[in-house]
Write a structure and sequence with these properties.
Distance between the termini of chain A: 35 Å
Radius of gyration of chain B: 14 Å
Strand content of chain B: over 45%
Largest sheet of chain B: 7 strands, mixed
Largest sheet of chain A: 6 strands, mixed
Structural class of chain A: mainly beta
Helix content of chain B: under 10%
Helix content of chain A: under 10%
Shape of chain A: globular
Structural class of chain B: mainly beta
Distance between the termini of chain B: 40 Å
Strand order of the largest sheet of chain A: 2-10-9-4-5-6
Oligomer: heterodimer
Number of helices of chain A: 0
Largest interface: A-B, 26 and 29 residues
């Protein structure tokens, strides 16, 4: 099974800052990686799939990149509404699907 | 509008059973694979189980294999999770999620829509 290590586990940044979250995989796999945002008390929301494809309706300040074992989620200009916990997730990796441990983003 | 509504959660004693349901609407349920994902209090997301559109392919997390059974009824637009032998560590919010992938190979995808979740508490 692939293990996903997210870092940092939490961060604090200012409005307008560029924020980068990383996910490292325990072994190489195809770029079947998704990112989710979960605001406090809310349901997770899909942001990105296939490592870099932005889901419809997601603001363009969010972007994803990476390949192999190293993937990143970047918020180009942090906004107050971006306060949330962000998770990466592998897919097409049957028989297991793995989430990263999460990164809490605060302002 | 895609809607997923979970039900069936509650308080159960260790060793007990619960059956969760997820009612789907707003899309053609029968052509989508589905997932159950859970989140323990104050913790991260944990994938629980996957079922393909025809029920022909099923996967489980190691933590629930042998105790939980996923199923679906496409005629009723419903997804289920039968949970037996419940343990304290199964306490969580359980979400159903509509599965999408980029290959169609039924290897487990990502979730583009999630229900609001149902709370399962295992305690004596």
């Amino acid at each position: 099974d692939i293990q996903m290590t997210q870092s940092p586990s939490s961060l604090s940044a200012s409005v307008g800052d560029r924020v980068t979250i990383t996910c490292r995989a325990s072994r190489e796999f195809s770029n079947y990686l998704a990112w989710y945002q979960q605001k406090p008390g809310k349901v997770p929301r899909l942001l990105i799939h296939a490592a870099s494809t932005l889901q419809s309706g997601v603001p363009s300040r969010f972007s994803g990149s990476g390949s192999g074992t190293y993937f990143t989620l970047t918020i180009s200009s942090l906004q107050p509404e971006d306060v949330a916990t962000y998770y990466c997730q592998t897919y097409n990796t049957a028989p297991r699907i793995t989430f990263g441990g999460g990164t809490r983003v605060e302002i | 509008e895609v809607q997923l509504v979970e039900s069936g959660g509650g308080l159960v004693q260790p060793g007990g059973s619960l059956r969760l349901s997820c009612a789907a609407s707003g899309f053609t349920f029968s052509i989508y694979s589905m997932n159950w994902i859970r989140q323990a209090p104050g913790k991260g997301l944990e994938w629980v189980s996957y079922i393909s559109s025809s029920s022909g392919v099923i996967y489980y997390a190691d933590s629930v294999k042998g105790r939980f059974t996923i199923s679906r009824d496409n005629a009723q637009n419903s997804l289920y999770l039968q949970m037996n032998g419940l343990r304290a560590e199964d306490t969580a919010v359980y979400y159903c999620g509509r599965d999408l992938d980029d290959t169609g190979r039924e290897l487990g995808g990502y979730c583009d829509h999630w229900g609001q979740g149902t709370v399962v508490t295992v305690s004596s």
